[in-house]
Amino acid sequence: MTQEVTRELVELADVARASLTSSDWARLRDFTNRINAHNGPFAERVPPKRREDGALVMGYTAVGPLIMELLPLAYDLKLVVPFAWPDWEEGRQLINSQPFDAATLTWEQTVGLFTALIRGDRFSEGSLAQVFGDGRMPRLMERLLDFAPEGGEAAGM
Predict the structure, then answer these.
(1) Could you tell me the pTM of the whole model?
(2) Secondary structure (3-state) at 34
(3) Residues with Cβ < 8 Å from 138, sequence gap 6 or more?
(4) Domain positions in the chain
(5) What SS3 class is residue 102?
(6) What is the rounded (10 degree) CA torsion for 34, 65, 142, 6?
(7) Which of 36, 91, 98, 152 has minimal CB crowding within 10 Å?
(8) How confident is the model at residue 154 (pLDDT cuts 50, 70, 90)?
(9) Which pLDDT tens digit goes with each residue over 99-150?
(10) For the CA atoms of the chain, what is the radius of gyration?
(11) Alpha-carbon distance 26 to 28, whole Å?
């Protein structure tokens, strides 16, 4: 299964990279700069509370505007690729490595982790806020930019 997932990821990541225009790279660079300049939390935990009728309203993670802005940008740039990320054992090992070293990741690994983290938040509320807060997502975004072509046009392989 792992080899199939990796093969699928390589193909999809290569298509995503080839589709990026100079304008797309500029948008990603601008957003990454804003993430890096951000001071303070990217989200906050809203505690549970009781309503007047006695019902308990569960606590939740309220993500900030930068995380909310990332989601449509990531999909618009086609950097969230449809591969079997829950089955990608290599990705799980990479994102949980201590210390997390984005500088050694390939393009495909970077896109795969980016996808897995964004999609994973759908199933584990607050996980995206956590990887923003601990610096892993900003480092992944910086790593994406390492693959930008110097002239700004779509990158060839």
Answers:
(1) 0.86
(2) helix
(3) 32, 35, 36, 132
(4) 2-146
(5) helix
(6) -160
(7) 98
(8) very low
(9) 889 999 999 999 999 999 999 888 888 889 999 999 999 999 999 999 999 7
(10) 17
(11) 5
15 C-beta neighbours (distance < 10 Å), count: 11
Rounded CA-CA distance 27/22 in Å is 9
How far apart are alpha carbons 146 and 151 in whole angstroms? 13
Sign of the C-alpha dihedral computed for residues 19, 23, 25 and 27 taken in this order: negative
Q: Please identify which residue in the block is written with the tokens 């950097």.
A: 79
- Residue 49, both tokens: 């509370």
Residue that the structure tokens 């995503």 belong to: 16
Residue 137: both structure tokens together: 């997502």
Residues 6+ apart with CB under 8 A from 134: none
Cα 138 from chain centroid (whole Å): 9
